[in-house]
Amino acid sequence: MSNSVDMKRVHDVLLRTGKCITEILERHDIPYMLAYGTLLGAVRHRGFIPWDDDFDLMLFDDTYGAAMDFLRAELPEDLFLEDEKSEPLFFHAWSHVKDLHTRATHSQFLHDNAYSHHGVSVDLYIARRMKMCELNDYRNNENSAYIERRRDKGLITPEDFSRRMADLQKARQAAAHEDKSDTHEVLALMGKGKSFELDEVFPLKRYQFEDAEFYGPAKAEVILQKIYGEFMKFPPVEERTGHYSSVVFS
Hints:
This protein is of the alpha+beta class and 250 residues long.
């Protein structure tokens, strides 16, 4: 992590933003859960992973639209809901909430710098309930739509677009020969291409995170094992990096 990033201040901003979002969601009975590195932080650190500079929430597809409506109407003025309605170049498949008192520079995902707002961000991923036999088609369709959105907005080189579409065509061909008989329902979690059994997610339960509590999945350890493997083991020092190369506070 670059020395230009004050992680304590970043964490303070993210925690305040996460609290604002979830207070609105809970007030309107919109379910959500901690996800990915934020869930890992809750289980392993009871708060932020020391070098992590984002905050991940997972919402559910049947209430996602309502959640965005409530957030758009009720977030404080210094938090910006970034989605296809508010950002002309929006190409992600999930919304973000950005703090307007910070300006972050992306070092890993350079195309994110194309957005109009550059504040420290909370990701609002979407979990979709579907049959297991539908999973790979869903993933391939989502990947295709993402690549095409970036092409349409001039945020991918022609060479990278062609390479990714060729890889996607191979994935589609492989999926066409898969057994489609498994019709039990799973939750596909957007962001890292993972799926989970319903009883691994529900019922949601509360987890301590810094000085707050947030909802998380029923079986966090099972989910983290599927995503990260030996999740209680710290990564090598050289892999303890965040997303931002710098964050400026105003």
